[in-house]
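hey so u asked for the seq, here:
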Amino acid sequence: MLHSFFVYIVTNENKTTLYIGVTNNIQRRLSQHYFDSKNQKISFAGKYNCYHLIYYEGFESIKTAILREKELKKWRREKKDNLINSFNPDWEFLNQEVI
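ran it, structure tokens below
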């Protein structure tokens, strides 16, 4: 099943900061985060160098994806960490997986 929309979590090199987003093109969005981190630093992800993908979920509906993004953003850090651990226990950077 192909998904048209994604909720994703990116982090910085030291895995200390998390950014949660939603997109219809995860590869393009990761490229935008990387570019902003290395150049303009105008977004949250750019300022904190968050462009390493560590978690993602696929959705068929943008409404469902946005609801999930909002849900995750409300969670405490510990709960987000547990979600990431269940999906990616070693917190490996998954950027190459989605290209």
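The two ends are 17 Å apart (CA to CA). The chain is about 40% helix and 20% strand.
lmk if thats what u needed
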